[in-house]
Design a protein that fits this description.
The protein has 728 residues and is α+β, with helices and mostly antiparallel strands. The protein is 29% helix and 21% strand. Strand 25 and strand 26 form a beta hairpin. Helix 14 packs parallel to helix 15. The chain starts with 11 loop residues before the first helix and ends with a strand.
Length: 728
């Protein structure tokens, strides 16, 4: 067995990291403390401790690090830029919601070694195959169990390992496995013996049953056996034999089996654990939707109070909020602008104790990160509380920093009769804000005042606007909503109304069909109630049911709301735009989310079955259960649970069947949640995975679970069997 790091230490940068270095850990202008950092021999773990003798050390895994930023690329490092030069500074950006680690090396050369070395390790991890990842996981367990670091594992260490791995096994059975694996009869397990022990421990009886059902000789799947399995279970329809050959070539580890055009059990396991065997259809992973429809025909991944890292009363404001949201594929971010000192507009949650950041720093971050993960347009939703003078400064910053990325005029030089598409607007940043007059006046030349009031008859605000900032607003003019009837007669396609969750819910209940129709013509933004001072989220699904495009959530807050958002936007290349179903886009269609059976030509019954099996990595032994939730139109909302399994978080098997009837599959989201059952208090969350029903593959599939933060927790997974049947 080899660590993934094997072969890497020849690299000079990694050699330097293995020796270690004293660096300053920076938390603020006044908190700068020296720490000793070094890469451990596994080339997967960073170890660090205070220089003071006797202090405990800490570690983190390279797999926890998403990226390395060099120089002054964080607010903390920018604040000490006058003290430490950029070439000695770098930032480790962690996955999920964990705070960044800002460091200053003793020399530019040392910083360079750590920057290049960490990037090499991250790249190496990203290029790992499934088998290598599993090898790495086994190696990690071996290290954890080998308490005295002698490269061997005695039986006491094995018992500790079983507890760490969530396995409740009696001592006699554990000793039997240990003795069987101890081929050298030394009373300890070494590298290869530990692999054997691990394989015995993780024998997949559930997968073996499926394999043997389709294997003619019980040893392998011939090409014809695999062909039969793919047709019957995985519902592969076209070019099945060609596909079977391809799977053998990709996933079969035995060269001898490959020559026979066959798949062994190991190859079968590899296939089922791969992207091909995932519940999420590979065909839906890239951009597969028509991106040439008007903006209002898409759901748009949107963030509320993007600048906040925590709650709305005392939380920290940070440009990091914008960077994280944009890197998650968010395409609409919110900027609350207020007058600041020295004529510089600031961003914060007004009338609260949240900290303040400069508007120009927000614009710089958006300009830099807007198109890192998606080329499709970004909308800057501006809450403008500034004086006319500081609005002019805002306009200057937008023009100067964003340059050609900022959309300043309509694409064809005329007043629009329909909104442009995400494809038309690739690489562009749009401003959503109040505007003096409409686009029609801009082209007729009647608008020439330097400042003015919004001219809409339905605009009650008397705030003065600067012409310079107003001119930056093209396709997203913020207006006050009057009524659906008023909008149908008077509204322009480029006007955007915003609703609190309560207002949107009221419209949905009272006039669902009209709401859907309104959203087929123009954009609507829905945002959380101001009473959510803890930055919690509402359920976005009901707003998507009404066709609302910009459903703004607190990206900084983990939970069901963000799970659904991540799930919906995990398709279509994670580009932040998902095409709405046709019945929500066509003006002549009428769809009432409260009564979906009125949808023309739809036969409303679909059932799904799951037979879950889970591997969960936790310190204590859990009693796992799986809950499957359907989120969609009200008649489709449902939850069902398996029974819980006593004391087995490692390889519990349920063989429970759960059935659901779904009326509107195009709007349905499926959420798998694993919890640790507790009969005396609330169950503990273990992991979850959410995806659109339309992206699900049928048959035997693996579901790789995500943490509360939405980051992967390999190799924790569910193994399920899915069937979807349309009943006439």
């Amino acid at each position: 067995m080899a660590s993934t790091g094997r072969g890497l230490p020849e690299d000079d940068n990694l050699q330097s990291m293995l020796v270690g270095a004293v660096m300053r850990k920076i938390k603020s202008r006044t908190w700068k403390k020296q720490r000793y950092f070094k890469l451990e021999d596994d080339c997967m773990t960073i170890w660090y401790k205070s220089k003071k003798a006797g202090n405990a050390h800490s570690t983190f895994s390279v797999s926890d690090v998403e990226a390395i930023r060099e120089g002054h690329q964080s607010e903390v490092l920018l604040s000490i830029a006058d003290e430490f030069p950029a070439e000695r500074c770098f930032t480790m950006v962690f996955r999920g919601r964990r705070a960044n680690l800002d460091l200053v090396a003793e020399s530019a050369e040392e910083a360079e070694s750590w920057i290049r070395g960490m990037r090499k390790l991250i790249e190496n991890l990203e290029n790992m195959g499934e088998r290598e990842k599993l090898d790495q996981w086994i190696w990690d367990w071996f290290k954890k169990a080998d308490k005295n670091n002698d490269g061997r594992m005695n039986f006491k260490e094995v018992q500790n390992l079983l507890k760490m791995m969530n396995v409740d096994m009696n001592e006699q059975h554990a000793h039997r496995l240990f003795t069987m694996a101890d081929k050298s009869q030394s009373g300890t397990l070494e590298d290869d013996e530990f692999v054997l022990f691990y394989k015995m421990l993780t024998q997949r009886e559930d997968v073996l049953r499926v394999f043997q059902r389709y294997s003619a000789d019980g040893q392998k799947l011939s090409l014809s056996d695999l062909d039969h399995f793919l047709r019957e279970e995985q519902l592969v329809g076209d070019n099945v034999q060609q596909y079977a050959k391809q799977l053998i070539e990709l996933y079969e580890p035995s060269d001898r089996a490959k020559l026979l055009n066959a798949m062994t059990f190991d190859g079968f396991l590899m296939y089922l654990g791969s992207a091909e065997g995932s519940i999420f259809s590979p065909q839906r992973r890239g951009v597969y939707q028509d991106m040439s429809q008007p903006l209002c025909h898409y759901f748009i991944s949107s963030s509320h109070n993007t600048y906040l890292m925590e709650d709305q009363l005392r939380g920290q404001s940070s440009v990091e909020g914008y960077i994280r949201a944009l890197k998650r594929g968010c395409r609409c971010v919110e900027v609350d602008c207020w007058d600041g000192a020295n004529g510089e507009p600031i961003v914060y949650h007004g009338h609260t104790f949240t900290s303040k950041i400069l508007f120009k720093d927000v614009v710089s971050a958006v300009g830099k990160y807007a198109f890192k993960v998606s080329d499709y347009p970004v909308i800057l939703s501006i809450e403008n509380h500034c004086s006319v003078e500081q609005q002019r400064v805002m306009a200057q910053h937008l023009n100067h920093i964003l340059g050609d990325k900022l959309l300043k005029s309509t694409l064809d030089g005329k007043a629009p009769i329909r909104l442009p598409s995400p494809e038309d607007l690739k690489g562009k940043i749009l401003l959503k804000a109040k505007k003096i007059g409409g686009l029609e006046e801009s082209f007729s030349g009647t608008e020439d005042s330097l400042t003015g009031e919004p001219s809409d008859e339905d605009e009650k605000s008397k705030q003065r606007l600067s012409k310079e900032l107003s001119d930056c607003v093209v396709y997203c003019k913020s207006v006050r909503f009057n009524s659906f009837k008023h909008a149908r007669i008077h509204s322009k396609v480029y006007e955007v109304a915003s609703f609190t969750e309560y207002k949107a819910r009221k419209h949905l209940r009272e006039a669902g069909t009209e709401f859907v129709l309104h959203n087929s013509r123009q954009l609507t933004r829905v945002y959380p109630s101001g009473f959510r001072t803890d930055s919690s989220n509402f359920g976005p699904q009901e707003m998507w049911n009404a066709g609302c495009q910009i459903v703004a959530l607190n990206f900084q807050t983990a939970g069901e709301g963000m799970d659904l958002n991540d799930g919906l936007f995990s398709q279509n290349g994670r580009c932040g735009y998902v095409l709405k179903p046709s019945f929500m886009r066509e003006v002549e269609k009428t769809f009432d989310p409260e009564m979906p059976q009125k949808l023309d030509g739809y036969n409303p019954v679909i059932s799904g079955q799951q037979l879950p099996k889970v591997n969960i990595k936790e310190d204590s032994i859990v009693d796992p259960l799986v809950r499957v939730e359907i989120h969609g139109v009200p008649t489709d909302q449902a939850k069902q649970e398996t029974r819980y399994i006593d004391n087995n978080g490692f390889n519990p098997v349920w063989y429970d069947t759960l059935r659901f009837t779904i009326h509107t599959p195009d709007l349905a989201m499926v959420r798998f949640v694993v919890e640790d059952y507790d009969k005396t208090s609330k169950n503990d969350f273990v992991g979850q995975y959410t995806l659109p029903l339309t992206c699900m593959q049928q048959g035997y599939r693996h579901i790789y679970l995500l943490s509360k933060d939405g980051t992967s927790i390999p190799p924790s997974s569910l193994f399920v069997h899915i069937r979807i049947t349309g009943l006439k």
